[in-house]
Amino acid sequence: MVLQRDAALKIWGWTSIGEKVKVTFNGKRASVITDKNGKWMMTRPPMKPGGPYQMKLEGKNSVTLKGILLGDVRLCSGQSNMKHQMKLHAISYANDIVLANFQNNLP
Question: In a 3-state reduction of DSSP, which class is residue 54?
Fold first, then answer.
């Protein structure tokens, strides 16, 4: 997952009504209590580009999200002119793939 760098991070979800939810991300911890519908949301301060990070969400249950990066998030939309077949990369860019050196490759 990629979250937008240098912008406030909105983290939200839902669980049991009145449940305390703790979120730990990049060494910082915050908590919130769910509302009358079991929904919750918190805003975390902007962060610089980097990662990979883990985010741990704890309540009655616990979930850990791994491989989170902070960077630029872009949304592209279009029609058939945006069609892109990933299988063509192995043919068109075979040499580039072999020579690529991405420091943030995730397992």
Answer: strand
pLDDT band of 106, cuts 50, 70, 90: low
Rounded distance, CA 15 to CA 59, Å? 8
- The CATH number of the domain covering residues in 2-99: 2.60.40
The SS3 call for residue 99 is: helix
Position 66: which residue type? K
pLDDT of 38? 97
Token pair 């860019």 is found at 93
Cβ neighbours of residue 96 under 8 Å, at least 6 residues apart?
none
| Residue where the block lists tokens 């079991």 | 38
For the whole model, what pTM was predicted? 0.72
Burial letters 1-13, b for 16+ CB under 10 A, else e: eebebeeebebeb
Amino acid 105: pLDDT = 59
Quote the mean pLDDT of the chain.
89
Please count the other Cβ atoms lying within 10 Å of the Cβ belonging to residue 95: 8
